[in-house]
Each structure stands twice: as structure tokens, then as C-alpha cells.
Amino acid sequence: xxxxxxxxxxxxxxxxxxxxxxxxxxxxxxxxxxxxxxxxxxxxxxxxxxxxxxxxxxxxxxxxxxxxxxxxxxxxxxxxxxxxxxxxxxxxxxxxxxxxxxxxxxxxxxxxxxxxxxxxxxxxxxxxxxxxxxxxxxxxxxxxxxx
Length: 147
What we know:
Elements: E1 4-7, H1 13-28, E2 33-34, H2 36-39, H3 48-64, E3 67-71, H4 77-88, E4 93-96, H5 108-113, E5 116-118, H6 121-134
Parallel strand pairs: 1-2, 1-3, 3-4, 4-5
């Protein structure tokens, strides 16, 4: 398991906390990652040329990464776009959906495109430890209800 692309919004305190917890988990496991928040920030009033640079930088980041963690909190359109793009490259995706209650529905397209759905930071940590032990992104398809 080489470099991870983290697809996640950070546009609320809750979102930012989840992103930082994901990054801390990867750091604690010694895993390398690319986080658009830390690499390519775009202000709402940046000009089109700069917007294009940020977009290209994130696309390049996805090509340079081997697998993805996608935070599905609030169904951020950018993160969902990144997951679709990543899937089209045939690279593994782990979806992170903190707080998904027992019996809750998860999106069919995401469930079918992902190698796993982790519903807490502890679940993500345990899953990634298993991946490191097996030296691969383990497939653990979501087995709950879908929407």
C-alpha cells in the first residue's frame, strides 16, 4: 500500500475534524498520503487560471496515488467526483462514513465501487492495519442496506 489520496471536504468544523483524524490515523500507521486541503487550496474568488491549476493539481495527485479514502460526510460533490474519477482508473477506494447507524442505507454506486466502507475512525484504523498486514487493500464489501 503506497500513497493514499484523501477525498474529503473540510468546510465545517465537524468535517475538518474528521479529515484531521483520517490524516492522524494514516500518520500513526506510517502511511503516505496526498490531501488536497494541504496541497491545493482555492479561494471562492480566485481567477479561472488559478482554479484550473488547483483542478489539475488534484487530478495529478489522484494519478500519483495508489488508493483512496473518500469521506462521504454531507455528500461533498468534489469528493464524490474524485471517487468516480479514481474508480475509472481502476484504483481501490475505501469509503469513510462516520456514524452510519446500524441498519442505515449506503449508496449503491459507492458500495459497489469501494473495497470497504468504514464507519468510524477505529474501524478505519483496524481495517488499515489488516491491509498493512496483508500488504494489499483488502476487499470488505459493504453488506448493509443500500439506497
